From TrEMBL:
Major place of residence: membrane
Full protein name: TRAP transporter large permease protein
TRAP C4-dicarboxylate transport system permease DctM subunit domain boundaries: 8-417
The species this protein was found in: Rhodoplanes serenus
Family according to the record: Belongs to the TRAP transporter large permease family.
Annotated gene: dctM_4
One cellular component (GO) term of this entry: plasma membrane
Transmembrane intervals: 51-68, 89-106, 137-161, 167-191, 217-235, 241-260, 272-294, 314-344, 356-376, 396-421
Protein function: Part of the tripartite ATP-independent periplasmic (TRAP) transport system.
InterPro entries: DctM, TRAP_DctM
Membrane topology reported for the UniProt record: Multi-pass membrane protein
Molecular function GO labels: transmembrane transporter activity
Subunit composition and interactions: The complex comprises the extracytoplasmic solute receptor protein and the two transmembrane proteins.
Length: 427
């Protein structure tokens, strides 16, 4: 009965339009009250859910994303990526993907990446002859690579919920799949651009000089090296790396480029506080739901029932992926992790799946969900910047989803894509 109250309570509240975090918290409180587990456990578990050292990195990486957006790093990266790709139909859309991947090594937030790249690229794409709906689709999909390429807020949340997977190991494991996801997106981008004649005006535009563009973009390119190299050298932890990234970004914005003002600093602090507050409230309230389900044994029984269906591990994995596809259409990545990980990890343990590989696999699935309608948080941001309705992107976003799904299948077939780099680096 309590299990039914826990899940049905959440579903009813969710259908009624209650915010996901509130629905999770209320459903957990109701199950705790009915099971007589003591309502005093509610504030304790809410606090315990967010009183974790790795979560200190979340507001820092949100802040550093805003700093690099406002300081003009994105525009300088665009010029340098244009030099590398050249001028031909589809090239500027491919540059959009490359810039998103560069920024993925700085901010760790898909929607923040979509906002930064969208602000820098929508106008240029439109002038080059790309429809705004196509541009919004490309930006939404490209920004999804952000939660795979380290640093990643989603992987930090996963490490908090799954202690067996450390943050450095997850960061290293996400690197190769993240790069593959970005490269995979370029295939349909060039194909659609060539088929429909997008970007023909690019051929007449001048190509930026290589050395000048590299010099301008160098400070942005060095940010991922500082963050990841510092962690690998043992100079600082992932949480301390987030603080170092903020200091580095402020130095570049105020001293090197001199594009930031004290007014910008205040607005960035407010923006980072708002976004981080939302994330941490979701984590706190979901912790109540997770503790109730674990204490009542709901998740273990559900996992045992799924395993007992008799399917092979690949059949079970396919079922989980289909379930995540459907859920990912309606929920953001952090909420999906917080709701489903208590159920998914016992299944992973029963089949002996590596928690680091499984975490990257789930994150890649969530990345696909970030630009899969109707939820599609990245697509919401890019469509708002482009000034087009989300339904206008449906014809363009399909091939991009298929391309990233192919990387998902490849990761299942070859787990070493995620596990090789952490092993080499000693994580």
């Amino acid at each position: 009965m309590t299990a039914a109250v826990l899940f049905l309570g959440f579903l009813v509240l969710f259908v009624l339009g209650t915010p996901v975090a509130v629905a999770l918290g209320l459903a957990g409180c109701l199950a705790i009250w009915i099971a007589d587990l003591g309502l005093l456990s509610v504030p304790t578990n809410a606090y315990t859910g967010i009183a974790k050292y790795p979560l200190l990195a979340v507001p820092m990486f949100v802040l550093v994303g805003a700093i690099f957006d406002r300081s003009g790093v994105a525009l300088r990266l665009v010029n340098f990526a244009t030099v590398l790709v050249g001028r031909r139909p589809g090239a500027l859309a491919a540059v959009t993907v490359m810039v998103s991947m560069f920024l993925g090594g700085i901010s760790g937030s898909g929607p923040a990446n979509a906002a930064a790249v969208g602000g820098a690229m929508i106008g240029a794409l439109s002038r080059a002859g790309y429809p705004r709906a196509f541009s919004a689709s490309v930006i939404g999909a490209a920004a999804a690579t952000d939660i795979l390429i380290p640093p990643s807020i989603a992987l930090i949340i996963y490490s908090v919920l799954v202690p067996q997977a450390s943050v450095p190991a997850l960061f290293a494991a996400g690197m190769i799949p993240g790069i593959l996801a970005g490269l995979a997106l370029m295939g349909p981008i060039f194909w659609m651009s060539k088929t429909h004649g997008f970007g023909l005006a690019e051929k007449d535009l001048p190509r930026p000089p290589f050395w000048a563009s590299l010099r301008e973009a160098m400070w942005g390119l060095m940010a991922p090296v500082l963050i990841l190299g510092g962690m690998r050298a043992g100079w600082f932890t992932p949480t301390e790396a987030a603080v170092m990234a903020v200091v580095y970004g402020l130095f570049v914005g105020f001293v090197i480029y001199r594009t930031l003002t004290l007014r910008d600093l205040y607005e960035m602090f407010v923006e980072a506080a708002e976004i981080s507050g939302v994330i941490l409230v979701v984590v706190a309230l979901a912790s109540i739901f997770g503790w109730a389900g674990s204490t009542l044994g709901v998740f273990d029984r559900a996992a045992s029932a799924i395993v007992a269906t008799g399917g092979s591990e690949y059949v079970i994995l396919a079922m989980l992926i289909v379930m995540l596809i459907v859920i990912g259409m309606f929920l953001d990545g952090v909420s999906t992790f917080l709701i489903l990980l208590p159920l998914l990890m016992p299944i992973a343990a029963k089949f002996g799946w590596d928690p680091v590989w499984f975490g990257v696999l789930l994150t890649l699935k969530i990345a696909i969900g970030q630009f899969t309608p109707p939820m599609a948080v990245n697509l919401m941001v890019s469509c708002r910047i482009a000034g087009v309705p989300m339904e206008a992107t449906l014809r363009w976003v399909g091939p991009l989803i298929a391309a990233m799904f192919a990387v998902l299948v490849l990761l299942i077939a070859v787990p070493e894509l995620a596990l090789w780099l952490p092993r080499v680096l000693g994580y």
